[in-house]
Predict the 3D structure of the following.
Amino acid sequence: MPRVLDAAGKAQSASAARFPPGLSSLLGGEKANAGGQALALSPLFENMDALPTTGMAQLLKQAVTRSGVFYESHLADWAQSGRSLHALRQEPQANLKLPEKLAELGKPDGQNNASVQEAMKTGSATGLRDRELAGLRNDSNTTQLGQLVHKQLDVLDQNQFSWQGIAWPGQAMDWRIEREQVDQREAHGGGEEESRWSTSLSMELPNLGGLAAKIALTPAGVIVRFQTDSADTAQAIEDNQLRLRENLQRAGLSLLNFAVSQGEQPNAG
């Protein structure tokens, strides 16, 4: 199956290397990092046949905003009346019930915290004894917090948001959003590099086979790339290029570049 997210493992290794040793020990380190790769078991789209395009777009948006990756930013918005408390409560951090010992470590009066004082005396990363650390690592809420922190570090390190889960019942999907540096010549004839946003997904479909797609947004229009395992699927996509162009035009977007390839992953940069 063509994989758009082959670099995910490298991204995680890079962020794990930057993870503070004390926090890595406390939040589970590799255990939390591996857990971040688990599939989201709840389908993103429950009823595809009855779901309009606008509804699908809204659910994709919710998958990003409710992922917990941008929770602290959303807290800042809420503090300035830019986001509702109800919206904040849809994110995983709002539903975590952290062990008392871990909650104590996060309080503002850290200098008066016995664990912090113990850390200063002993040189321990956290001030917690081995038995206490083991108990925290085995707590499901601590593990989930570790997964969320690793995901946040991945986004900061790679300028990439990744979502891996179930698109609709029985259908797995890998999806990412990223900001990339590209040569302007492909976008609008220049010779310099520019920053642009792109989104890509990879799926193994029952009838079409392995399929990867990438859409890049430029000031002049959108660039669309498909890659498939099947010659029949590639031809079907080519046959519907005009339909795609017309749908994009109705949305106020110009199809700047369109390509379909078979075999190796296409280069949409």
In short: DSSP finds 13 helices and six strands in the chain. The beta strands are 160-168, 171-183, 193-205, 209-218, 221-228, 255-262.
